[in-house]
Amino acid sequence: MKTEGQAAIVTGGGSGLGAGTARALAAAGAKVAVLDINAEQAKSVADEIGGIALTCDVASGSSAEEAVAKAAEAHGEARILINCAGIANAGRIVGREGPHDLELFSRVINVNLIGSFNLMRLVADRASKLDPLDDNERAVIISTASVAAFDGQIGQAAYSASKGGIHSMTLPAARELARFGIRVMTIAPGIFGTPMLMGMTQEIRESLAAAVPFPSRLGTPEDYASLVMHILENTMLNGETIRLDGSIRLAPK
């Protein structure tokens, strides 16, 4: 898909991977709607790139429906959806204070997995009614998993389950939406310099970077956005999860 002139929605676009992707899309000529639960961060990125900011709780049906409708009013129906919204809470199944908090587990699943599906279903429904572009393509949906989907560490049961669900959803979604000319892909980042990670000490960050075989550094939002842009342009990429991790494999803890 040629990005220029297309309407795009980026969830979690107020920071980290989402913000980097929003910038790359705007630089390529897309009309970008920045969706985030943090209205101030969303506005900051949207103002920077000439897009629009929309407050959105991706786990809420009504909130997402409203945001997608407002994005369409401003830019036209989205042909590009990038799901970057997510949270990463840690907790052992059996910890010092007893069993894992069930509400916390549910919240991680709701935001990461259900939130990704929520936006996918809404954007796919509206995009399915659009006129096809080259290769009979109507839209591209890219979600964000994690290497924790494949080699999750101790304390990551909830996070790994949510990201594993995104990975597992990719192929059946691509198969189902193929009749509409809608591609579905997932990116599974490794250790990236997101705001959550950058809040750790310099020593910890350097230790994590050294664990990446090559390149031995933290991934950046620009690395993620670069892969997003390639997926958008390469029509044969469909129904797959791509690890973006410098060949790292996570240890048990």
From TrEMBL:
UniProt superkingdom: Bacteria
Key words of the record: Oxidoreductase
Gene3D superfamilies reported for this sequence: NAD(P)-binding Rossmann-like Domain
GO molecular function, one term: oxidoreductase activity
Record flagged with keyword Lipoprotein: no
Keyword Glycoprotein in record: no
Family, similarity comment: Belongs to the short-chain dehydrogenases/reductases (SDR) family.
Record's protein name: SDR family NAD(P)-dependent oxidoreductase
